[in-house]
Design brief:
By secondary structure, the protein is mainly β. It has one helix spanning 3-7; strands at 25-28, 31-35, 42-48, 54-61, 74-75, 90-93, 96-99, 104-111, 120-130, 142-143, 149-150, 157-166, 174-179, 184-191, 197-204, 216-222, 226-235, 239-245, 254-259. Strands 2-12-9-4-7 form a 5-stranded mixed β-sheet. Strands 1-3-8-6 form a 4-stranded antiparallel β-sheet, with no helix packed on it. Strands 5-17-14-13 form a 4-stranded antiparallel β-sheet, with no helix packed on it. This is Pili assembly chaperone N-terminal domain-containing protein.
Length: 260
């Protein structure tokens, strides 16, 4: 099993991640955030929720926007798709820990930039993995209801997202509308800015007003300088109005008509 396929469980899931078998651990919160204007040590908790001792290792990593782990779209400029990487600037303590059943431990994270950064959003992940024992297995064999023993020889892991912001975010999107083979409307959010956007997109009829309810609402997480298609599951029309905002009840950050 590809470890990144396992990781994808989420990185969206991010708040708690159980590990299969007798070894279970959870992580909370699943996101660590920094402001460059006032860098302070942040922390998260790891808990052993299983019935066996578990040994974990934590290491900073970076996943590109178009990686198999994130699948968050494609970069506008492939030559600049790792410009927001701060994994080498993260300091973690402890990096390796051993937890008895029901034990929890605080992990501290500091951000120490190695160079002057431009305004924008930066990111990385903290990959938390179960250390294998001398036998090479994370967990002992599991006996199924059919009596078959299954050896789990896979690396169990999850991740904590790390975000850091330099300056005040300014959001601006371009939009492209198309349709798939099932004649469903696809709206592509094009984010040319240095900022990560986490909000909502509403699809409306072209003649709609601010008081008109949307035909549908779509969650959008858009990384800096990237584009991401959103399948609306609506039948493709010649034209729709798109509104977006941080709050799905207030789509007040922009509005545009989008034509097929």
């Amino acid at each position: 099993m590809n470890r990144f396929c396992l990781l994808w469980l989420w990185l969206t899931l991010l708040v708690t991640s159980p590990v299969m078998g007798k070894a279970f651990f959870s992580v909370a919160p699943g996101v660590v955030q920094f402001e460059f204007s006032r860098l302070r040590t942040q922390s998260f908790m790891i808990s052993n929720t299983g019935d066996e001792r578990v040994r974990l290792v934590i290491r900073p990593v970076y996943f590109a926007v178009d990686s198999r782990s994130l699948r968050a779209g494609t970069p506008l400029n492939p030559d600049r798709k790792v410009q927001d990487n701060i994994s080498s600037s993260l300091v973690i303590s402890p990096r390796v820990l051993s937890l008895a059943p029901n034990q929890r431990r605080k992990v501290r994270v500091s951000l120490r930039p190695q160079k002057q950064l431009r305004q924008g959003d930066y990111r990385a992940h903290l990959l938390i993995s179960v250390l294998k024992g001398k036998s090479g297995r994370v967990n002992p064999p599991i006996t199924t209801t059919t009596g078959l023993a299954i050896n789990l020889d896979i690396q169990m892991e999850t991740a904590v997202a790390v975000y850091a912001r330099m300056g005040k975010a300014v959001y601006d999107f371009h939009w492209d509308c198309s349709k798939n083979s099932q004649n469903q409307l696809i709206v592509t959010a094009i984010n040319p800015n240095q900022w990560r956007f986490k909000g909502w997109v509403g699809i409306f009829t072209p003649e709609s007003t601010v008081k008109t309810p949307p035909l549908t609402l779509v969650r959008l997480i858009s990384l800096r300088e990237s584009k991401r298609p959103l399948l609306t599951e609506l039948p493709a029309e010649n034209s729709v109005r798109i509104r977006w905002g941080l709050d799905k009840e207030q789509l007040n950050m922009g509005s545009v008509n989008c034509n097929l």
